[in-house]
Amino acid sequence: MSSLIASTTARRGFLGRLAAAAAAAGLSTAVPSALNAEPVNEPSADPALDAWFGKIKGKHKIVFDVPEPNSGFGAIWPRIYLNTMKATYPGDATAVVILRHGGIPLGMNDALWAKYKLGEQFSIKEGDVPATKNIYANITGLPIPGLGIAELMKSGVLVGLCDVALTVYSSGAATKMGMQPDAVKKEWIAGLLPGVQIVPSGVLGVAHAQELGCVYCFAG
Predict the structure, then answer these.
(1) Residues 7 and 91 in one domain
(2) pLDDT along the chain (220 residues), means of 10
(3) Which pLDDT belongs to residue 44?
(4) Domain residues for 185?
(5) 3-state secondary structure 3-38
(6) Is 16 a domain residue?
(7) 204 neighbors 161 (Cβ within 8 angstroms)
(8) From 15, 18, 118, 198, which residue has the greatest number of CB atoms within 10 Å?
């Protein structure tokens, strides 16, 4: 214990001498601006994207990174966060979900799931067989209302979906089915759940949400 006290005291003494020396030299001892920076909200070339990111507001902000289906937890944890945050800490809260890589089918409608066998393609099962519909759009069976991607968006949760993953996976589906990649991607975009925002890439979406003040939560 004495060694801990001694080391702590010595460290405080060192910091005090450092601050005094800096003051004598006319240097600032304030926290570096990079560590105390305001949220970055620079305009992009896409006004719709900027408007979507502009909805990230409130005292409490979080982004859920969903690169895999992960049994639908990316469509559950945002509700848990909002419910418990509201009950525990005051202030408005915003939750952002970024669907990227293998997590993108969570943002697609049942017609796409059926036609393109997304349950099979992304290894998502309903029971013992590949799912033929989006089982994570509306999640029931748990004692918590408002679960699922579609339900989350109804209450203001922001859901973004990676354009790069959309391009890659739709192209793969097109090749497998003998269709034109551009036509399939266009159909996939049209088949996104209402309210889902395409972001240039999932990693951009996760990174920019953090630049705008969101804390990070891995949900995949």
Answers:
(1) no
(2) 37 42 38 45 89 97 98 98 97 98 98 98 97 98 97 98 98 98 98 98 98 97
(3) 87
(4) 47-218
(5) HHHHHHHHHHHHHHHHHHHHHHCCCCCCCCHHHCCC
(6) yes
(7) no
(8) 118
Q: Are residues 85 and 10 in the same domain?
A: no
Note whether 101 and 28 are same-domain residues: no
Query: Do residues 182 and 120 lie in contact, with contact meaning Cβ atoms separated by under 8 Å?
Result: no
pLDDT at 24: 39
Are 27 and 52 in a shared domain?
no
Evaluate whether residue 41 is within a structural domain.
Answer: no
Q: How deeply is 67 buried, as exposed, middle or buried, from its count of CB atoms within 10 A (0-12, 13-18, 19+)? A: buried
Assess whether 135 and 203 both reside in one domain: yes
Quick check: is 42 in a domain?
no
Amino acid sitting at position 79: R
The CB-side HSE value for 179 (13 A sphere, CA atoms) comes to 17
Q: Per the confidence metrics, is the pTM higher than 0.85?
A: no
Alpha-carbon 22 to chain mean position: 41
Residue 161's pLDDT is 99
Q: Does a structural domain hold residue 40?
A: no
Q: What is the dihedral of CA 133, 137, 143, 146, to 10 degrees?
A: -160
pLDDT of residue 86: 96
Q: Are residues 163 and 93 in the same domain?
A: yes
> Which residues, including other chains, have CB under 8 Å from residue 5's CB and lie 6 or more apart?
none
Distance CA 45, CA 35 (A): 27
